[in-house]
Design goal:
With 144 residues, this protein is mainly beta. Helices cover 6% and strands 34% of the residues. The protein has one domain (17-142): Cyclophilin (Beta Barrel). The chain has one helix spanning 39-47; strands at residues 16-22, 29-34, 51-58, 61-64, 84-88, 93-97, 116-123, 137-142. The longest helix has 9 residues, at 39-47.
Length: 144
């Protein structure tokens, strides 16, 4: 008698969280976290909401000062895609990639060092960069 083969498929539901980044006197930035690539990082991100941090610009990237999120590299990527949101373990920072950074080659978006991708920027477009200056404060919170 031959053994019958069974295919067992395990599916996991990926959690998505809508977050708004409130910057006084500017439009809010909306992002969507998705735990498919870095589930532990997304979990820690959501658990620490709300939090307020300073913002900085580096090329077409917005990155925060040190956030309350603490997570090691998790499926960290040396290159990211347009509008990716990531966590930078080295600086405990949240990064929003609206375009190239100063160290990327033409056509690539390169973080300073590998980052955990946690989601995507929903809105607005990169025109918001013109109105953000280093040290601006922003509050990250769940979107109601």
């Amino acid at each position: 008698m031959k053994d019958k083969g069974y295919l067992i498929q395990i599916t996991t539901a990926h959690m998505k969280h809508k977050i708004e980044i409130v910057i006084p006197q500017l439009k809010n930035i909306e992002i969507e976290l998705d735990d498919s690539s870095s589930p532990n990082t997304v979990k820690k991100f959501v658990e620490n909401l709300p939090f307020t941090v300073g913002l900085n610009l580096w090329g077409d990237e917005i990155y925060t000062e040190e956030s309350p999120i603490q997570e090691k590299e998790e499926n960290a990527k040396p290159l990211v895609e347009l509008n990716d949101v990531a966590y930078w373990p080295t600086g405990k920072a949240v990064c929003l990639f609206y375009g190239p950074t100063p160290i990327g080659k033409k056509g690539e978006i390169k973080p300073y060092s590998p980052v955990n991708v946690v989601g995507k920027i929903i809105k607005p477009d990169k025109s918001i960069l013109r109105n953000i200056s280093d040290g601006s404060e922003a509050t990250f919170q769940l979107k109601k």
